Amino acid sequence: MTATTVTAGTVRGGLGQSVVRPDGTAKVQGSFQFSSDYTADDALWGATLRSPHPFARIVRLDVSAALRVPGVAAVITAADVPGVPTYGLISQDQPVFASDVVRFVGEPVAAVAADHPATCRQALQAIVVEYEVLEPLTDPERAVDGSVPPIHPDGNVIRHQRIVRGDQTIEGPVTVEGTYELGRQDQAFLGLEAALAVPDHDGGGVELVVATQWLHEDQKQIAACLALPAEKVRLALGGVGGAFGAREDISLQVHTCLLALRTGRPVRIAYDRHESFLGHVHRHPCTVWMRHHADHDGRIRRIEARFVFDGGAYASTSSAVLINGITHTQGPYACENATVDGWAVRTNNLPSGAMRGFGVVQACFAHESQMDKLAAACGLEPLEVRLRNAMHTGDRLITGQVVENVAPVERIIHEVAALPLPDEPVGGHDGDILRLPGGVGRTTDAAHVRRGIGYAVSIKNLMYSEGFDDYSTARVRLVDGTVHVKFATVEVGQGFVTLAQQIARTELGIEDVVLDRIDTGVGSAGSTSASRQTWMSGGAVLGACRLVRDRLLALVADREGMDAAALTIDGAEIVDSGGLLRIPVAVAAAGVDIDETFEHHHPATEDLDELGQGNCHTAFAFCAHRAVVDVDTELGLVKVVQIATSQDVGRVLNPLSVLGQVEGGIAQGLGLAVMEELLQDGGIVKNPTFTDYLLPTFLDMPPVVVSLVEEPEPHSPLGAKGVGEPPTISSTPAVVAAIRDAVGRELPRVPVRPADICL
Amino acid sequence: MSVLVPTSLDAARDALSANPSATVLAGGTDLMVEVNERRREVVDVIAVDRVAELRAWSHDPVSRTLTIGAAVTWSEIEDAPFLAWVPSLAQAARTVGSPQIRHAGTIGGNLGTCSPAGDGLPPLSALEAVVHLTGPGGERSLPFAEFMTGPKRNARAAGELITAVTVPVLRGPQGYAKVGVRNAMVIATAGVALVCDADAGGVRLALGSVGPVILRCPEAEAIVAAEADFAAGRLAEPALRAAAEAARAAARPIDDHRSTAAYRRHAVGVLTARLLRRAFPHD
Fold first, then answer.
1. pTM score of the predicted model
2. Residue A631: is its pLDDT beyond 90?
3. Which residue in chain A has the smallest CA separation from B259?
4. Interface of chain B toward chain A, CB-CB under 8 angstroms
5. Looking at residues B163-171, what average pLDDT do you find?
6. B2-168 domain in CATH 3.30.465.10?
7. pLDDT at A9
8. N or C end: fewer C-beta atoms under 10 angstroms in chain B?
9. A44-70: burial string, b at 16+ Cβ within 10 Å, e else
10. ipTM, interface predicted TM-score of the complex
């Protein structure tokens, strides 16, 4: 946008419109600068040496030969970390480089900087590491039962938490139970980890351009490892090609900065796909046992559950994932009595951490599988048992917390049921083989196919929990008719850059909104995760805009000799309640310079007590899915035919953007249901490539029909709830329920493999 | 590192003869994956995708054969006229990768890599294709069964170039089907090719991804050949079941991260039965 457009009454590109992304054209044309595209004159390449063993003692580490490789500028190990030798989001238990023991396949042991990636590879090969291989702990149950010596000084249990509420003696009369298992899903973003570190001329600091999810948290952790004050470690966001939780933790940040400071030259590191699979955390593999006690009419009386989350070698966010999982045991259903036991444990598997859904995916697969069993046991339809138990605003959770948010659970169930079913018969009207399970494999004929329909409903907490003040900051300047917005909110593709402009346009009546660089030059925005940025950073931009607006109106009132309280911005104009004044905002703002910064905080939350009681969550959103699948019952192949969804979104601020989150989240949930799993055997990673880690293709992803339920959320600054996670959460159990409906098997594990269906 | 881009067969052969350890690059859809994942170091490259002779195919109506140049792509093979002449091969071509991969990947590349999961190989085995090579010692031709010697191993000698493959144009039904965990762009966990020679009363079944090489199923083939009525398109259900069972028994699958051996064996039986039912729609 180059000129300010003034049209009476409205501002273009405001809230509620399907505004096009400011970076959309560049992304489509291939000119968008992703993190891996950043370089600098004289930049060196960095690379990382990783452990081939899941568990081993480092007996000898000799880098002298690597240092002699021509073109190598530096080789660093644990001995070269000047500050805190470990990092971590919640507890700092993960070494920058392993020094004595390696605890997972892929753990960094050393890093090199050299003139060319090929030189780096040569140098890595020249590093001598002798390992004494140890017996890895790979079964999380053995960490729970304490039968294995600690593999880390912090012990093998990362966190244990119970929830005990209500009458513990309730049994039956109807009981259903099951043990459910979820495999390890990878976030599989397309833009691989990459960063460029540029040392300050005086060597006293560093600037890092990086694809991450939370600049200030990275800054804090990096500075501690570098033994530098935070202001000497400046971060700017490199273009992010997806995140989904995998960029919450430190990966290459400290290594890149250390190499730049050591060599005095810019250093860039870029992972390839294999290294990416080893170099970031994944969704927790999890086993969930649940037993529901209910009346004959299907009403839940008590829930018992036990969760075991495999946290892998280091803690990352495991303790928070655990709390999310167990506090969502009941799902979006009323329940007075509960007995829950949850464990997050350490193993020599890949570290687990954040991924879209954050523990609730695991809980939801279990509780929704249970709801279908309960329906069957009571002779009810799947939706009927859900409606009879549906949670409402004001209900108390099993943590004792009261749900104060809009909770349209009944409505989303009714709306998802009312969405049209696919009108196509099995194989479509044209008998195209691509519409059948097996697709291009020419595997299936329509006669082998059975169709199934399944439902699932979810509740998801929004924002951070357990007393965490994950505030967000925004700075808004109105300079001579143009709005400049600055924030450290990481754009990972979700569209906050679009939304920030929309908010500013609507609040200030000015179309010309310029976004400043996303960096640590302003206060923290918190993480782009937990479905929180529309609410939190949206609230920060809104708050800063309102401060600017109030000052502008005061200025105009002063100029016109009017009462500022009588003035408002209506569309693109400033008007007064008496109807005397009507001037374009852009005209009124000519020559002004107003600068305001605002922090948005959500109400404080609490830790859980020993019995798992406490107001630990900030807010909740709800979502329902219906899946229609065609299953080749003889070969166990699945074609998802349609997904219908009704989602509680509060208020739609950008319809196109919401649809993108809904469809993308469903694709990720579908992937977990039928194909996505990073396999480990004895700690060894079996399929760290896109040849064998399968993501849904266009032929696997069905049409999605959507009903967005808009009941504005009074606690949210814009009335909107975060929409990013819910689509992923209940789509997985809906797809599995549909497969069960088609084949009549229990299918307690995801991803569902062909052999699970047909052998 | 050197990259040569010959445009004639003579130039390509001479270049490879002069540097027998050079890597031959056609579509690069296998090779570049290995290079990018650093499983393979490439020093000198001879790119053959612009060699006119290798990009050509010819149909001989007298001998009823089709000779397909090694650099002919899957996207060419998946359509007419191949679909009419060698339907099993054309169907297999359609199952390869994505449109982009099929535009780049070649039939010669499948032969050069010789992965048991190569989608083009079961049809070539069932068609009893002849593979043509040229090299320092001159030209030679090998039956497919002698060409593929193991997983990712074949009889191509150092300095030899795969030039073409000859397959018969047969009367009678054919088909290829494969199983993978995804509905497109997936490596076969099991694949089956069926080729019938109605004039000779012959039936050939070949299995991919269930053994170290592409496996033929002589017992299953004999059952169908004895029991099928080609003119009527008829195969009695018990014979069909017996043939599928024999194909199942012929598989030599392994457990790996893509599938269990048990599922692979099961899939071979199901796919064989389905291909036979498509070929002989009447019970």
1. 0.97
2. yes
3. A755
4. 33, 36-38, 91, 94-95, 98, 175-188, 257-260, 262-263, 266-267, 270-271, 274, 278
5. 98
6. yes
7. 57
8. N
9. bbbbbbbbebbbbebeebebeebeebe
10. 0.95
